[in-house]
Amino acid sequence: MSSNKISRRSAIKRMAAVAAGVAVADKIPALASVLSPELPQDDPTVSTLQMEDFPEVYKDDDVVFHQLNPHLWIGNGHLMYNESIYLVEGNDKALLIDTGTRIANLDKIVTRLTKKPVTVALTHTHGDHAGSVGCFDSIWMTQAEGIRVPRGYTGKVNYMSNHQKFDLGGRVLEVFYAPGHTTDSVLFIDEANHIGFSGDAFGSTNLLMNLNVSTFIKSAEETLQMMYDKQIYYMLPGHFDGTNAETTKRVYDLREIAQGVLDGKLVGEKTSDSQTALNRRFTYQGVRFNYNAGKVL
């Protein structure tokens, strides 16, 4: 390990300090300050923003878009608990992260927001994140076990590799694999701006663990290491309502819950979900960790 890295165990301990309110390096800025630097900074541990404080730039029956800063937009659909779409703009190109559940003419909506050529990339292929890919001629997705091209999609499919970079011109987003929710779950990391986009990899406070718990623990530990190395303050999730940005504390808490489940020290209450086959749920500080008791190791 190079001298500028720390061990996974040390990273987790450091993140525990962050979770207790101690910053890794300088104080972690308020989320609103990261997204819009012109806003005054509040408590450095605050991870909440009010959507109404950001201009509404488009709205129809399917989606509403707010502009979080001059080069970042969030669209929220209405069908699957506030499913979130992110449009990230560089000097030359733009990246659309996810496409929502069912948003008519999403391609035309996006061209109203940016005049730059748009690349479409998916955090994973569940219907509430890939439901409107048909609006676009090509997409990027992860090639993983059990993952199929979104149903009915006939355009060009490109496959992302771990650590692949999307260079938008003066802004680069890196792909970071994080399986657990699904085999194809990925993060998009904007190191220069200290933020990321995490889809459902950490659940937006309601994590659905479709793979083995041990797989998720590895992803959480690697994500904590990455967030420390790259100084990623927040990740904006796949169902963002302004209050559930995924901080190092959130990832650390989920990792601890998962480890407790794996060790048999934590046992969730029994649940029944015919769609996902998840049969246990453990709740901690407002976060729900849903898993299958038969898929722990």
Overview of the molecule:
It is a single chain. By secondary structure, the protein is an alpha+beta fold. It has a single domain, classed as Ribonuclease Z/Hydroxyacylglutathione hydrolase-like (Metallo-beta-lactamase, Chain A), CATH 3.60.15. The chain has six helices and 17 strands. The chain has a six-stranded mixed β-sheet with strand order 1-2-3-4-5-6, covered by helices on one side. The longest helix is centred in the C-terminal third of the chain and has 18 residues, at 213-230. The chain is globular. It starts with 7 loop residues before the first helix and ends in a 6-residue tail after the last strand.
Q: Which regions contain 5 or more consecutive residues with pLDDT less than 50? A: 15-27, 38-46
Number of domains: 1
The major sheet is characterized as: 6 strands, mixed
User: Radius of gyration, Cα only, in angstroms?
Assistant: 18 Å
Q: Could you tell me the CATH topology label.
A: Metallo-beta-lactamase, Chain A
The rough form would be described as globular
CATH H-level name... which superfamily? Ribonuclease Z/Hydroxyacylglutathione hydrolase-like
The CATH architecture can be named as 4-Layer Sandwich
- Beta strand %: 25-35%
